[in-house]
Q: What sequence folds into this?
């Protein structure tokens, strides 16, 4: 007979048992569930709700069950539905009626809400550490390439020369925001719902604050309806992870392009590449492609959670059992992707000469010619038109702008002098942009210092 089966005259259908059960996926919460139950049992004893003797026996037995689970000595049962009922069933089998006292003053509703919050807090901590390691490796890459010139793009068309360091630091900034978002989510997750009961609390004099303190929570929930039905933190985490994956996917897309024969800006390490079963020459960026592909998987988890929660009235509804698989899958996917992405970028080779050649093509210094003319007194819109004519002339002559002769340049504007060649060299174009946030070495080093301070203060 099920632990909740007192008012039922018939057993549930076997197919319903299978359909209703969540033990297949929520068994991963066993440690959180037992930790919560130990704290709850201790509080029940301290409050005189159950005897101290019973409380100590429950705590001792729960510790033994935890050890047995971790040593593979426990087989969970589908008929017991979920991890909470499985643990309680084992407890009662071992110590009889004393075990039945554990569930005093709580519901599975507030129990699972607490288990998931504990799990999410731990996972946020792990993923945050992974992001911090990735940031550190990207900072090392940035420091090594402050003078590695490459083309910057808009519309995937060459636009202006930048440095590879500047490009990498754009992703460092994204990852810092990802880290901050996760820590914000942690703060909103760090609220303990136990004591909310099924929806209306309990008449027993629980010490919610003591349980919260023992379990490491900053505060307790202040509304029992919201306490059991809130999954904002799970949605928020999955949203954070979706944004993180979007950033990894964007970088992966660039690495896929850059490692192609058409770009050859980077060479992926053999350890992070695969071959073809039919074409012996191939070296495929499969790691980057899989990260790009798995991003959609995390997005799907976010949409699933939003859809599950969008029409649920207060308080708990069985629909909410569907929160876990999406949440777990998003977490698992990110924890799989971040370390392998870190290894991929850490081991790839930067082809600096090819990047420089790429920057020299495509008239990436055209804006600097316009800026040169503006400094000579030419209105910007007029300078823009002049440089447009120069680009057209260079295209017809199959030359770069700085390969045009002075006479050819003067045909476009009398304001152009010999000093233009120094003004529009690739390095001059980069170093001239020394404003905060720019690609000049001084500005990038300043950006790196800010990011390193962020990492050092974690």
A:
């Amino acid at each position: 007979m099920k632990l909740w089966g007192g008012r039922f005259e018939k057993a549930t259908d076997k197919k319903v048992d299978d359909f209703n059960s969540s033990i297949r996926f929520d068994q991963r919460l066993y440690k959180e569930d037992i930790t919560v139950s130990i704290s709850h049992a201790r509080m029940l004893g301290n409050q005189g709700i159950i005897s101290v003797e019973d409380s100590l026996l429950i705590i001792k037995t729960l510790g033994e069950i935890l050890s047995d689970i971790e040593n593979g000595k426990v087989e969970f049962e589908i008929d017991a539905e979920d991890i909470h009922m499985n643990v309680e069933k084992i407890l009662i089998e071992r110590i009889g009626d004393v075990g039945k006292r554990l569930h005093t003053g709580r519901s599975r509703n507030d129990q699972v809400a607490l288990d998931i919050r504990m799990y999410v807090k731990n996972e946020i901590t792990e993923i945050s550490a992974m992001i911090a390691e990735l940031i550190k490796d990207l900072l090392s890459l940035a420091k090594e390439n402050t003078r590695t010139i490459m083309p910057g793009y808009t519309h995937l068309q060459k636009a202006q020369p930048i440095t590879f360091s500047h490009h990498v630091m754009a992703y460092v900034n994204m990852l810092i925001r990802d880290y901050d978002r996760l820590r914000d989510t942690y703060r909103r997750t760090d609220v303990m719902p136990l004591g909310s009961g099924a929806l209306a609390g309990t008449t027993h004099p629980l010490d919610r604050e003591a349980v919260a303190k023992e379990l490491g929570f900053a505060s307790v929930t202040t509304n029992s309806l919201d306490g059991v039905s809130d999954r904002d933190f799970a949605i928020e985490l999955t949203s954070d992870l979706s944004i993180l994956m979007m950033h990894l996917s964007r970088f992966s897309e660039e690495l896929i392009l850059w490692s192609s024969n058409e770009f050859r800006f980077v060479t992926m390490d053999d350890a992070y590449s695969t071959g073809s079963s039919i074409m012996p020459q191939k070296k495929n960026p499969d790691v980057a492609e899989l990260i790009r592909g798995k991003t959609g998987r995390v997005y799907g988890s976010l949409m699933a959670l939003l859809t599950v929660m969008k029409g649920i009235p207060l308080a708990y509804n069985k629909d909410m059992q569907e929160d876990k698989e999406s949440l777990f899958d998003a977490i698992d996917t990110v924890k799989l992707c971040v370390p392998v992405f870190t290894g991929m970028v850490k081991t790839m080779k930067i082809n600096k000469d090819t990047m420089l050649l790429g920057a020299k093509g495509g008239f990436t210094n055209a804006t600097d010619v316009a800026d040169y003319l503006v400094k000579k007194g030419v209105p910007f819109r007029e300078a823009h038109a002049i440089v447009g004519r120069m680009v057209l002339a260079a295209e017809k002559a199959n030359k770069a702008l700085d390969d045009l002769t002075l006479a050819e340049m003067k045909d476009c504007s009398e304001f152009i002098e010999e000093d233009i060649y120094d003004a529009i060299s690739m390095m001059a174009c980069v170093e001239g942009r020394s404003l905060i946030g720019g690609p000049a070495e001084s500005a990038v080093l300043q950006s790196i210092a800010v990011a390193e301070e962020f990492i050092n203060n974690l």
Summary: The chain has three domains: 5-104, 110-146+163-195+223-357, 358-456.
